[in-house]
Every structure is written in C-alpha cells, then in structure tokens.
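Reposting from the mailing list since nobody answered there.

I have sequence plus structure tokens for a pair of proteins and want to know whether others read the tokens the same way I do. The first protein:
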Amino acid sequence: MIFDPSPDGISTPNKARIASVGRWLPPTQLTTEELMASTRHNTKIDLQRYTGVRERRVLNGEGDSHSLALNAARDALEHSDLAPGDIDAFIGCSITRSRGSDAKTWGLEPPLGKVIAQELGAPNAISFDVSNACAGMLTGLFVLCNLVRQGVIRRGMAVSGENIFPLARNATGHVRNLLSRELASLTVGDAGGAVIVEQTQDPDTPDVLFCMATVAKHSRLCIAHLEHDDPGARMFTRPVALHNAAMKNMPIVYQQLLETMGLPLEAMHHVIPHQTSKAAIKTGIRKISEHLSQHHLGQQLHSHAVVTVDRYGNTASTSHTVAFVEELDNQTVKPGERVVMLALASGLVIGAMVFTADEALVASRAPNAAGAVADTDGHPGAATNGASNFKENSNENTTLVGSHADNN
C-alpha cells in the first residue's frame, strides 16, 4: 500500500487512474461436458457440479500467448482516445509464453512487453515483463502506478495473454479421480487482458491502492513445469491444503487494507475475486465477512462478488480484467463506484487492488463509445449475458476438492 517516493525525494501531486481496459477471448467455446468426455480414464467426475465451470474459451490452433495479449492491447487502445505512441511503458504479465500454434514452444526473449510495444508501433517505450503467477496483472499494475506517481511515465499498459488451456488438455490424459493433483488444471481457459494506467493531478480523483503479501511457506502447494511428452505444461496442486492456507490468510490482508483506507466493505461496489471456482469464491467471501464481523467491524460482502468463471474458466493472470471488462460492457459499473480486485495466486500471493471507476472509464466502453456492445472475440452482442454476481450463483455445490487452485 506504500508507494516508493519520487526519485528526488519530493512529494508529487501525481495520482494514477485506470484509463482503459481491454480483453480478447478466443471464439472457440469448449464445454466442461465435452472436456470430460475426452479424458483417457473413466473418471465419472461431475466437474461442473464441483467447480461451477460450464465452459471456457480455448485457442484452437488460431494463436498463442502473444496474439492473445496483442489483441487485448488493441482492444484497450480502441476503447480510449490514445495512440500506441502515447503509452510510455509496456509490462508483460503472463504466466504462459507460448509462441506459434505449438503450445510446447515457449519464448522468454524478447519479453512480451517489448513484443507488444513493437507490434503496436511504440518501439521507444519502456518495456519489460514481470511474473507473479495469477497475480501477475495486479503486480504489473502496481509497478505502473508507482512509476506514474513518481512522474517517471505519464501512461503505461499492463498486458497478458494466457494460453493456459494446454494444462487442461494434458490433464485429461492423467486425471483418474477427485484426488488427482491435476484436477484443478481442468478448470482453466484462454484469454488476453490489458489495462492502461495514466497520470492525473485532479485532487478529487481517488488514487489506486494496493495491498500485496506473500506467504512463501505455501509455495509448493501448486507448481507447474513444461513436459517433454506433453504439449505445454502440467500443473500439480494440493487443493485442500492450498484452500485452507488461503482461507486462513486472506481475511487478515483484507482487514489491513480496509483499515488503512478507512473504508468498510460496503463501500466496495464491485468485488472481483480471482476466478478459481464458484465454490471457492463463495467460501472465500464468507470467510472474509466472518472475520471482519468477529473484529467488530460488522461488514458483509455477499452480493458484490463478480463471477465469470462459469463461462470462461480460470484464465490465470487475466481473470480480473476479463471480469471487469464484462461489467463495463454491460453497464453494471457506474461512475464513482469503487472496484476491488482480490488477488489469490500460487506463491502463496494474497492481495488486493482498489480503484474508482471514473466517468471517462465507464464511458469508454459504453455502447455509443464504439458502436454496439460486442464481446471481444468478434461476436456482436455476446457480452450481454453479463457477469454473474455471487448472490445469483450461490446455489452451487460447495465441495472444494480439486476446485481451488491457481496456476504457477
């Protein structure tokens, strides 16, 4: 929550605002029923019942991590009045690094941020990558907001492309039952996300705040690595232990955040958790509310949690952006409303990003801003289904085995 001081040690009036957001979803939809029908072993697992994931978007030989990120970056620019040359810094935040249609081909150099800057036509921008599992985008945004506040840059973009579905494809050949350490891999989906941050000196603009913590002793609860015999990576998770560790530590971090801000949970109009499973989101929100009630804060969070995991699966570092774009496209977010994005990532990384959606941001994705509302996979009107909130989806089975895992 504490930003670094400016280079000269002098306090500056700069604040950061979220200027534009973008996403890209592959057009191919794959249902959980279809995915489970492709498993090598007869598992008899009702994955949709356990996790709430009905379907997800997948690349079907039509792109890679870079193309997902590039399309999301273009979408963010198209919903702004900015040109690529107006962006001073690009930070790549992906877990995956696939290049070409073969998910087994990964590239670390040049960095994703540099590739995006060059492809968009901004070769002189600062560009580099950060990696922090599914908290990668929020970490990149923390860095950008810090640079903006210091006056080092005026604008920056955090961008990610997660070609993460190969985890699921590989898991179909190995999962045998609910105790499989690869079961959580079956919940993932592909997506791209991008967020533009810019400087403002408007004294009435609330600053963007962050609270990030790492509980490193739990770092081995979810690990992943590339395989020689499988395209892409395989992920191995101890879901019950990971879930218990998250439930123990999340409420403490959020209490600290709220106390520092001097705001109650009720002041958070849109709460966007990392999209692991509907059951895990339900339990997490309940645990946070119970903790705050025990500390005499009397706060509840039930009706605000945004859920998109049922339609897109766990899209790793892009999950918050995918959900927020959907909220904006459906005009659910009003000017002046606060948005909190809750990080939960392998590591174990826990945290939050809080910002206010101003009038310009809301208007940037209004129907009259760029024609009819369209989902960013080229299907007009697809976004009108809307992001589900927690209250509307709280009737899912709350079994947590295999349902709460991040991707590292």
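The second protein, same order (residues first, tokens after):
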Amino acid sequence: MSFGLGHGVPLDPAPGVVAISADELPPLPDSIISDPESGRLDPRAWFKEPGNRFELEIGSGKGAFLVQQADLEPNTNFLGIEWAGEFAAYTSDRIRRRQENANTHRNVRVMHSDAAQFLQWRCPDNIIDVLHLYFSDPWPKTKHHKKRVIQHQTMFDIWRCLKPGGELRVVTDHDDLWAWDEAHFEHWASDKNASEPTLAGPKIPEAPAKVRAFLDAREALPYERTSFAAPESAGEHELVGTNFERKFRKEGRSFNAGVLRKTGGTAN
C-alpha cells in the first residue's frame, strides 16, 4: 500500500545516516535458537555521540514527535521505530532534509522494523532512558489484538531494556486500547494512588511461562505508576503536541495517558 507521502517526489531515507541500514542491523544469527541473546547489539552505537541520553519511540509515523523533540534536546539521541515502510522512509527523509539544510537533527535515527521483535531479540539490558508509545495502532478487531504493542512479553522486554528508573510513556485516543493497556498495567505496575488492583478490564492472554515465572519471583511489581508529564514540544493542554493529536482534539476526542517507571535492576 502506498500513501503517496512523497507527493510524487522520491523519498531519500539516507540509509546509514538517518535510516538504519542493513549493515547496521544484519539478520539474526542462526545461534539465536540455542542462545537467545546472541542477536543483541547496542543501538546507541548508531549515533555520532553514543554516550548521550537514549530515548526510543515506537510507532514514529510521520515523525512529528521526533522532529519536534529532538530539536529541543540536541544532547539526547532518539531512535524512532516504524513498521510501515513508507512512513519510515518519509520520516527518514524529513530528518535528512533538516540535517542537510539546517545542520540539525543529527541526534535522530529511524528504523523500519517490528519494535516488539527488536526489543525482544536485539536490545541489550538497561540502555533506554525513556520509551515513548504515542497513538499506536489500536488493532480494534479481536483477532488482531495479538498485534497490539502492549503484551506481557513486550512489558517484560521494555522493563529489561529500560535503565533503572527509566520510563514507559503511553498516550492513546482509543478507549478500548487503553482498557487493554490498563489490564496489562494492573499485572506489571503498582499504583500508589489506587486503593486495590481491580483486574476488571478486558480479558487478556496469559503471560508466557518465562514471563509469568519472572513476575511470580518478584517481591514487588516491576514498574510503578506515575503522572504523565508532557514533553517540552507540546503546547498548552497538549499531551504530545503532534499534528495527529491536534487534529483529534478538534474532533472532540478524549485522550488517555500514563507513565510506568522501572523499578529494580536487571532481569537476572
């Protein structure tokens, strides 16, 4: 499917400069079968200043958040992951043009990939300061719920990849998706503002055995709920400040937002 995002002009994602190239992200090794960690690589090495603070956005779309926030935080490296190839190319092209025309946004890279798979098989422990999940695809049909980003396995992988104290920030305009997210959060995060867990949300799949064992072995839940603080790029009364959000605010849609902060250290 083509969205015509280039309006007839070829998109240049600048592989190896903006878009993550095949050399930077080679295929998973055969050894992954016996050694699940053998495919790990450090995405911070893809940036000019790998020692900078590192934030990741799942579902970067047309790149509005990345473009706005990376300009305000030049000392933070931002990696946007987008599963739709044309959107990933469009965002990469936007970043490339800013690099060439204004010598800015050299702290942004874009990956065309499945973010959940990247977190599970590629990303090392304890490297992400903030993971942004804004307006992700709600996959409304029941048969497609397995494609939603928030799953028990992904909650574990995000926790593992976040630094201690790192944050998962979530915003959505889709109430059913938010109920799904909240049902998972009940299992993963303590909420000091809630009296008792309700566990009254929609039915969600059981956690995989290894993830269930991880949860059962912990004395405290892996995350704690905290209040959502809008990024600097957001305007007054905005949560993220993208054109997507502004469009739906005009339509009168409501929004849900939350933050989960990692507690504890490593998965081992």
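Reply #1 (J.P.):
I read it the same way you do. The CA atoms of residues 96 and 102 lie 10 Å apart.
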